[in-house]
Amino acid sequence: MPTLWRRYVAIDPDNQSLSIEQDAAPSPGDGEVLIAVAAAGLNRADLLQRMGLYPPPADASPVMGLEVAGKVCAVGAGVEDWKVGDPVCSLTHGGGYADYAIAPAGQCLPIPANLGMEEAAALPEALLTIWHNIFQRAAMRRGEKVLIHGGASGIGTLGIQMVHAMGGEVYTTAGTAEKCSALEALGAVRAINYKDEDFEQALTDAGLKERINVILDMVGGEFIQKNINLAAAEGRIVNIAFIRGFQAEVNFAPLLIKRITLSGSTLRAQSFAQKTVMTREIREHIYPHLENGSVKPVVDRVFELADVAQAHDYMQSGAHMGKIILRTQEITHYG
Q1: What is the pLDDT of residue 223?
Q2: Using H for helix, E for strand and C for coil, what is the string for the chain?
Q3: Which residue from 144, 172, 221, 291 could staple onto 213, CB 3.0 to 4.6 Å apart?
Q4: 5-121+297-327 maps to which CATH number?
Q5: Does domain 126-264 match CATH 3.30.420.40?
Q6: Overall pTM surpassing 0.90 (yes/no)
Q7: What distance lies between CA 324 and its chain's CA centroid?
Q8: pLDDT number for residue 331
Q9: pLDDT tens for residues 62-86?
Q10: What pLDDT does 155 receive?
Q11: Is the pLDDT of residue 335 over 80?
Q12: Helix 154-165 with 177-186: angle, nearest 10 deg
């Protein structure tokens, strides 16, 4: 195979500025595929990595980017499920902000026929985050009431649809009336503008105090106590981020009285084997809904790779609804 040259986004550690650099594309190792990347998804973890607050694991690529979509252009030893030319979307172990990226074969997913590359790049991180935390860790059951904070995020917009498709009754929070209206159109029974209303009081007034079975929270701070107050007996609360802070004064008495399970997780720290199980279960349970269009990723804006700094600024502003995507290259070959 001739040498492939890739463009990638580099971080200047002195001033956190971004630039487009070039080097030889990596080669896939055992159990890996090399993807010619058409589009890459942005995640808040990328902003933290840029600021030096979320360093990549020692065995990960130092290049930002945790999810991509494109075509397989090379396979490593032992890869049987994928071949050159296959369109895939996948988690990466870093390196997604580039023309070519390595991905573990077990983390690759087929691109549903009704989705383009940019929509497909919005899937992997959100799919696995939601599946693991709501359906594996919190073990949501049909008919249960679920509260998803950060409903307008990529995770939130896909999570609302997934919970609805799997028979849950979903509630959510967002920061504008327009976003709340859009989230209700996606399947939320009620979306609460947390800037105008206290979501705990709004749900209490709706008769839902101590009736929420599962809560997915990426906010933290003062939301921690409110979540505990709203949770039902045997409720499960999962924290995946703490945007408003890791520390809060909390009354844990309801945790005992209601036998609440309070847990947290990050996706990147989990093993490839664990992510492979998630991927397999997602293909079984969620892909039918993706293929029939009842679940569909929401893409807010697409930026060119060279405009990555503007894409980061846009994410930092919080104005987006759904995923922000980087377009990397036009894929016209590899099968």
Answers
A1: 97
A2: CCCCEEEEEEECCCCCCEEEEEEECCCCCCCEEEEEEEEEECCHHHHHHHCCCCCCCCCCCCCCCCEEEEEEEEECCCCCCCCCCCEEEEECCCCCCECEEEEEHHHEEECCCCCCHHHHCCCHHHHHHHHHHHHHHCCCCCCCEEEECCCCEHHHHHHHHHHHHCCCEEEEEECCHHHHHHHHHHCCCEEEECCCCCHHHHHHHCCCCCCEEEEEECCCCCHHHHHHHHEEEEEEEEECCCCCCCCCCCCCHHHHHCCCEEEECCCCCCCHHHHHHHHHHHHHHCHHHHHCCCCCCCEEEEEEHHHHHHHHHHHHHCCCCEEEEEECCCCCCCC
A3: 144
A4: 3.90.180.10
A5: no
A6: yes
A7: 11
A8: 80
A9: 999 999 999 999 999 999 999 999 9
A10: 98
A11: no
A12: 30
Beta bridge partners of 9: 20
Extents of the domains making up the chain: 5-121+297-327, 126-264
- pLDDT, tens digit (0-9, with 9 covering 90-100), for 275-333: 999 999 999 999 999 999 999 999 999 999 999 999 999 999 999 999 999 999 988 77
In the chain, the amino acid numbered 51 is: M
How much is the mean pLDDT over the chain? Answer: 96
Contacting residues for 270 by C-beta, under 8 A, at least 6 apart: 132
Within this chain, domains 5-121+297-327 and 126-264 share the same CATH topology: no
